[in-house]
């Protein structure tokens, strides 16, 4: 077996963990959560029993799709606070496979390198803004969710749990984050203000309403 075959087999195994519909629902709930999620909350969100949720959540951890840690959900400390609970969050990293194999990521890196070397940042941002504007509608949250941003409210600020361009943004941060901001500016109607607001484990853009009332 070649190295490429082994990598593909590992991806098949990982993604195969999502063939069960209950497991897919649980993964979506945990992946979209702004922070860690306990078994009770995940079970309630997915509409299943706690024991069934625990079984499937641990299978997702085994597959490398979720990570697990322990903390007291009550917020209390000291004697009588109870044992720390098992909590889950989406694992870092990406898993993808195509049949037959495709190399869109390689093409994306090549195109980004050419655009960056040619100094075409403004042209790229203009194209991204126009693309966003063409798809803009009344439901910004739904549009962001459909594009993989996993939006969530943090007070009056709309934050984005996931960066759909993460791999390219790691390699070409200024170029890709600028394109991303322009795309969201196009998607967001006049009542919204997107801004660069990088933070750990989330997209580099956050969105605020011009008039929160």
Verbal overview:
The strands form two sheets. The protein has a four-stranded antiparallel beta sheet. Helix 6 packs parallel to helix 9. It folds into two domains: 88 residues, Winged helix-like DNA-binding domain superfamily/Winged helix DNA-binding domain (Arc Repressor Mutant, subunit A, Orthogonal Bundle), CATH 1.10.10; 106 residues, no CATH class. The mean pLDDT is 87. Helix content is 49%, strand content 15%. The protein is of the alpha+beta class and 213 residues long. Strand 4 and strand 5 form a beta hairpin.
Lay out the secondary structure.
Layout: H1 3-16, H2 21-32, E1 37-38, H3 39-46, H4 50-62, E2 66-71, E3 85-90, H5 104-117, H6 121-135, H7 140-146, E4 151-154, E5 157-160, H8 166-171, H9 173-187, E6 192-196, E7 205-209
Antiparallel strand pairs: 1-3, 2-3, 4-5, 5-7, 6-7
Helix pairs in contact: 2-3, 2-4, 3-4, 6-9
InterPro entries: ArsR-like_HTH (IPR011991), HTH_ArsR_DNA-bd_dom (IPR001845), WH-like_DNA-bd_sf (IPR036388), WH_DNA-bd_sf (IPR036390)
Protein name: Helix-turn-helix domain-containing protein
Domain HTH arsR-type: 13-116
């Amino acid at each position: 077996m070649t190295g490429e075959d082994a990598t593909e087999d590992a991806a098949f195994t990982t993604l195969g963990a999502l063939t069960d519909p209950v497991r897919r629902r649980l993964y979506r709930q945990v992946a979209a959560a702004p922070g860690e999620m306990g078994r009770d909350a995940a079970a309630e969100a997915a509409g299943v029993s706690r024991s069934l949720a625990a079984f499937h959540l641990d299978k997702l951890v085994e597959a490398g799709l979720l990570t697990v840690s322990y903390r007291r959900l009550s917020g209390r400390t000291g004697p009588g606070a109870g044992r720390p609970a098992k909590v889950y969050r989406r694992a870092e990293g990406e898993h993808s496979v195509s049949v037959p194999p495709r190399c869109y990521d390689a093409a994306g890196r090549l195109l980004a390198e050419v655009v960056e070397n040619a100094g075409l940042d403004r042209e790229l941002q203009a194209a991204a803004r126009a693309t966003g504007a063409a798809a803009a509608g009344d439901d910004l949250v739904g549009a962001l969710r459909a594009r993989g941003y996993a939006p969530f409210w943090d007070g009056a600020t709309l934050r984005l749990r996931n960066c759909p361009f993460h791999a390219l943004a790691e390699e070409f941060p200024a170029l890709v984050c600028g394109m991303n901001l322009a795309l969201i500016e196009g998607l967001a109607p006049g009542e919204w203000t997107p801004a660069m607001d990088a933070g750990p484990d989330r997209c580099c853009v956050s969105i605020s309403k011009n008039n929160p009332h």
